[in-house]
Amino acid sequence: MYLAYDHGLEHGPTDFNGGSVNPDFVLDIAVKGGFNAVILQKGIAEKCYAESRYRRQVPLILKLNGKTNLSKGEAYSPQVCEVEEALKLGASAVGYTIYAGSEFEAKMFAEFSKIVREAHSRKIPAIAWVYPRGKDIVNDTTKEVVAYAGRVAFELGADVAKIKYSGSLENFKWAVQAAGKTKIILSGGPKVSDEKFLEIVKNVMAAGAIGVAVGRNAWQNPVPLALAEKIKEIIFK
Ligand code: FBP
User: Fold this and answer.
1) pTM check: above 0.85
2) Is 43 in the pocket of ligand 1 (CB under 6 A)?
């Protein structure tokens, strides 16, 4: 159960309500909610995690690339942090977003392949966020497109793939199958009701996923720790 908090770069501060603009607010949720890791970009990792008590309290997954949503062109997310830097900041795993189907897919495949090599030589897992995107992708959450995302991660050697929900247990099961030995986690998505989100978590776990990475549904929630308890109940019990 991972807590994602790279949205300040990906979406800008518009995602933040209440206290969530403050990294300490979210890091506290990660600790008190018993999350297995928090996902950060390098700036926040360096300034708010690496030399803080959080480093002892919750593991870090460092996102090695990122982009804003200010540009609406074909998606490319450049690498902004190296595996070695991530390790110094206390990371237990690294993550990288691949926009499969984008004009710049080849560049992201090359960067990610190098990251997998480096991560494995340092004995840490490489996690691929695989989000099909670009002018040729009509719908990024169909059964076929999401399963293709999982398969891309498997073909490129990712240990874990973070993919979007494809609408039903049956559809998601196909994505888990297509991903083979690459383990699947759900990418949470925009805030929905707790009931709806927990239903999705149940479906992805029943489909064979190993867990969820949740961002907005947790820290935009007025009672994030209550939601965390319910997610844990589904994943671990
Ligand atoms: P959420 O649970 O809030 O959807 O976070 C998952 C995530 O992958 C974040 O790590 C990332 O910032 C965001 O979604 C990117 O979403 P998109 O590129 O689809 O706008």
Assistant:
1) yes
2) no
